[in-house]
Amino acid sequence: MKQITQTLRTGVVEINEVPVPALTDKFVLVQNSASVISAGTEKTKIDMGKKSLLQKAKARPDLVKQVVGKIKTEGLKKTLQTVNSRLDSPSPLGYSCAGTVVAAGGMVEGIQPGDRVACGGADYANHADFVAVPKNLVVKVPDNVSDEEAAFTTVGSIALQGVRLAEPQLGETFLVVGLGLLGQIAVQLLRANGCTVIGTDLDAALVKRAEGFGAITVPPGGDVAGLCHAKTAGHGVDGVLVCAGSSSNAIIEMCGEVTREKGRVVVVGAVRMDIPREDFFKKEISVVISRSYGPGRYDPFYEENGNDYPLGYVRFTEQRNMSTFLELISQGKVDVKSLITHRYPVDDAAVAYQLIEGNKTEPYLGIVLQYNPASRPADMPARIAVTPAAVATDKVRLSFYGAGNYATASLLPPLQASGQVTFSGLVTASGRSAQGVAKQFGFGFCAGSYAELLQGDTDAIVVTTRHDTHGVAVRDALKAGKHVYVEKPLAMSVQELAEIHRAYGDCGQAQVMVGFNRRFAPATQQVVEHFSGVKSPLVVNIRINAGAIPADHWIQDPQVGGGRMIGEGCHFIDLASALVSSNVKTVYAVGSAKAEKSALLNDNLCLSLTFENGSVANITYTADGAKAMAKEYVEVFGGGRSAQINDFKDVTLYSGDAETRRLKATVQDKGQKPMISAWLEGLKAGKACVDYACLMSTSLATVMAVESLSLGIPLTVDTAVFTAE
To answer: Per the database record, which ranges form the Enoyl reductase (ER) domain (predicted)?
Structure first.
């Protein structure tokens, strides 16, 4: 299918062939018939792309700070790999579209194939032939509303949310600053609320258009303040809706001048907001920044997970705003059809973007992209060839399931540089990034279905999707006889591990590898060598100053990420296992008591581990420490020897009373490259670089750590649990 994307490094807009996005339980698959270009938002994104790297850095100092911090910990080379990967990855454009439902997920209520719907969401409702959209961002279209009109729904909901926050009442007077697409719709919404509307813009044509919707207008350069006071007997307007975009502070200053005492200013557009105290203080003017298209925006609980807010407590959510806007079109109270100035087939999208980039000088307002309704997902090829070339038989044929930041920055570059692999197929969770990553790293094809990676042209599959997909993906790869590398965790439950265990036993030939890279780190290897002659059990202490992750991050979602013990704690159980050269025997976990934390999501906890060779380990994992402190610290004791690892940069080795040896690296090295090398060598030699029993023991211990935290007792780590009744 066709999708319009932009590359951040260059700002170039392209039409790419990408896989049809996969359908999940709470999503709806829609075939687009029309989408609307949001000139302001999309032009800002394109303009950012066209800036030089220095200009980008000046525009986003917050990201520069992150890059500097990453250089300090991970070094310049790896940081550049990460930055370059993100700059070169294509980003989908668009967030407001309409079309026909092709398929609805099993947990989607009230929507069926064949329904006409409007869709929203910058990550979902893109300019593409097909889109997969969460159920809370999809609404049915009334019969008397065309698809073109419905495509304006998300844009209209942004204006509607701004009007709601302004709390207009019958007979009030409002000023709308900026009469672009949002401003024109805002004028109509305020008029529908029985308000007198004054409108102004720097474009005389837009001012004239607003007059057609009943606005009293001020031409470019006119006396806005004078008219506002004249129409309100000198009191000032009741409220202002700022729908313009500007780096000047003049707009917010004017708002203070024209607004009455205790009036309201709602900022919908992106303007400078150095609010002058004098006017706003003396008049006690309320200032509100409107958050996109309503309650639910930027909340994964609502948008991604499909959980609605109770109507009695949140009357108008994103979805209810979208429905309201469509109903206003249906009733003839809002006219968007007359706002359409240009229509382009999706194949001519480049011409459409020339308009908003300023390469064409004709005026524009509503720009609609049209799609071919003839094609269906079943008509689309399962695979999209990217680099059709003969597969080298002396190289491992790798396919990737997932292509997020870690995969593109830490796995794909060293695999590519190794010269030992050829990239076969690529499937991503949403399909949006598949084509760009496939081109960047030379994959043979990209596809929309994981099943395509299980075919005969793949030797091994690398799974780097979100945690809830790992267990099934590994199981199915083994059933297909494929070697599999999976980013931690191996799985999220005992049941998933049991299914993997059975598939591994039935397969008998495929290797399983989990991305426990720290065991391969130079620091770890030095410590293991230091204790190589010690026969007695070892004692290990590991402290992780992990730092906080927002509660709405997907890792904190119990169903998707499984919490930080499942998602990250497994790394350190495996590290302890590598240091003592033995598998986990028992696990006992205790956590700090916090009102907002369940056992599964507790990220302040202590683990006590025993191992089959008599060694013990204590792991302290905390999210509540200071950022200034090193993140990871390891101590090992035994046989008259000791060792310390500080953040995988410094290693100090002790023997006897006085002998010490300090090894210091210039940058942090957590072992990704040697892990990849060891894995590839193991595939070629037919002997896994990490024993399967060790990987399964660590993975089972991780899941049982959460169970121990719930029960408050130590638990035995034994794969016999997989066959227990």
So the answer is: 11-361
